[in-house]
Amino acid sequence: MRTDPIADYLTRVRNAIKARHRIVEIPASSIKKEITKVLFDKGYIQNYKFDDSGVQGVIKIALKYHPETKESAITSLERISRPGLRKYVSKDELPRVLNGLGIAILSTSKGLMTDKEARNLNVGGEVLCYVY
């Protein structure tokens, strides 16, 4: 049985948000670190820290909540391309998430980036997930 590390990452974050946790710890990998950096740059998480003390290392993510309503900055995390069915798009077919309010994280030949950045660089790639 093979597991999907990106789906595991998204599920851990989704479960931590539902349980109203402030911090979630996730086993590290290079692609998970890149996804974390994209989420931080786009304002979906408050902060992150890479702890490489163990064999694999751990990513500690501080989740972002509204101070008054206590609602999470992330409403939904949705895995699109999965090991059983990969989803690739060309530069002309790049998805728009919630008509531009959300982001699609893509794995391109120029690294991990959002759909808007891929549109500006004129590249396509594998659609990993939607975040809004």
Which residue ranges are poorly predicted, with pLDDT under 50 across at least 5 consecutive positions? none
Structural class by SSE content: alpha+beta
Strand tally is 8
The span between the termini is 30 Å
Overall geometry comes to globular
Strand-residue proportion: 25-35%
What does the average pLDDT come to? Answer: 95
Order of helices and strands: HEHEEEEEEHE
User: What is the helical fraction, as a range of percent?
Assistant: 25-40%
What's the tally of helices?
3
Report the major sheet: 5 strands, antiparallel
Structure overview:
- This protein is α+β, with helices and mostly antiparallel strands and 132 residues long.
- It has three helices and eight strands.
- It has helices spanning 5-18, 30-41, 115-121; strands at 23-27, 45-51, 58-63, 77-79, 88-89, 103-108, 111-114, 125-131.
- The strands form two sheets. Strands 4, 5, 6, 7 and 8 form a five-stranded antiparallel sheet that branches. It has a three-stranded antiparallel sheet with strand order 1-3-2, with helices on one face.
- Strand 6 and strand 7 (111-114) form a beta hairpin.
- The longest helix is centred in the N-terminal third of the chain and has 14 residues, at 5-18.
- The protein is globular, with a radius of gyration of 15 Å.
